[in-house]
UniProtKB/TrEMBL annotation:
<keyword id="KW-0472">Membrane</keyword>
<keyword id="KW-0633">Potassium transport</keyword>
<keyword id="KW-0813">Transport</keyword>
<keyword id="KW-0406">Ion transport</keyword>
<keyword id="KW-0407">Ion channel</keyword>
<keyword id="KW-0631">Potassium channel</keyword>
<keyword id="KW-1133">Transmembrane helix</keyword>
<keyword id="KW-0630">Potassium</keyword>
<feature type="region of interest" description="Disordered">
    <location>
        <begin position="17"/>
        <end position="38"/>
    </location>
</feature>
<dbReference type="GO" id="GO:0005267">
    <property type="term" value="F:potassium channel activity"/>
</dbReference>
<dbReference type="InterPro" id="IPR047871">
    <property type="entry name" value="K_chnl_Slo-like"/>
</dbReference>
<keyword id="KW-0812">Transmembrane</keyword>
<dbReference type="GO" id="GO:0016020">
    <property type="term" value="C:membrane"/>
</dbReference>
<protein>
    <submittedName>
        <fullName>Ion channel protein</fullName>
    </submittedName>
</protein>
Length: 124
């Protein structure tokens, strides 16, 4: 159901932020929030039913992001207690021919700050 999907998405986003060095990260000793280059975004409606390759090209060329995976709920099953549970799947490095659905999410790497790249390097 849609409500369960939204709550699962929020839980995943919190876990992703914590894992990727967000403000509540266990691996980050600093208390200052650092934006994570890894994100989970909804597939834009114009790419529903379109091969993954087209979304990948769009993200690279126009948004300067790299699509690295797809989060998909692909089937609803009934568990032992009679509750309906969606099956969840993460496709890493999906096939260019994979057709996207309306409920897919895409894992993207966002560009990080280029300030560090502009600094001259010290040679040893």
């Amino acid at each position: 159901d849609r409500k369960g999907f939204v709550s699962e998405q929020k839980r995943l986003q919190r876990a992703l932020t914590r894992y990727a060095g967000g403000p509540n990260s266990l691996s980050s000793p600093s208390t200052s929030p650092t934006p994570s280059p890894l994100g989970l975004e909804a597939v834009p409606p114009m790419f529903v039913g379109v091969p993954f390759k087209r979304l990948f090209e769009h993200l690279i060329k126009l948004e300067k992001k790299i699509a690295i995976g797809i989060y998909r709920q692909y089937r609803v099953t009934t568990d032992y207690a009679g509750h309906r549970r969606p099956k969840k799947l993460v496709l890493c490095c999906p096939s260019p021919h994979l057709r996207l659905t309306a409920f897919d999410k895409v894992y993207v790497l966002r560009p990080s700050s280029t300030d560090a790249l502009r600094q001259p390097r010290a040679f040893l």
